[in-house]
Amino acid sequence: MADVSARGRSYRYVGPAGLKAAVQPGDGGRRIGSAVDFGSWVVEQSAAELAEPFTFVVGVDGVLRLAPRRSEHVACAGGGMVLSAGEISFMREADRWTVSEVSNQSTGYCPDVSSWAEVARALDVVGLQRPSGFTHEIVFRRCPDCQEHNVVREDDFVCVFCGSDLPAAWNVDPTA
């Protein structure tokens, strides 16, 4: 279930059950809780890897976790709940690393755009310069009629599967 705590709403995995079932003990993205953690992680990445976005989650502990782009968010989270999830890119600017792009693009967790606050906090702890919000916001909604998950485009709150109206407020997790 989604839970709203002092840290913000947490999101449970709502994607295909088989992907969550495939998560093994020890799976999970690299924990990045400090500038030292990020420095150790980034030097292990090749130029080709750094040219692509990475999968990220912010765990319910508020800590950023990173995995290669083609990783499933649920695996990056070790199967657990998250405060946000999406894709993130880094670039070297002068003598420091910065976040060049970041989105909430995760069809496994479908986090609301309001989860940016948790991403910002996690990046600030690490000391990474960042944008003021998601550089690409994804609006997720669940259709109340057919129950399918939708990505809302251009403020068109209509289900692409059955044509029903979608709610204005986030509602992806039916137990929230």
Automatic annotation (TrEMBL):
Q: What's the protein name?
A: Zinc ribbon domain-containing protein
Source organism per UniProt: Streptomyces longisporus
Please spell out the taxonomic lineage of the organism that makes this protein.
Bacteria, Bacillati, Actinomycetota, Actinomycetes, Kitasatosporales
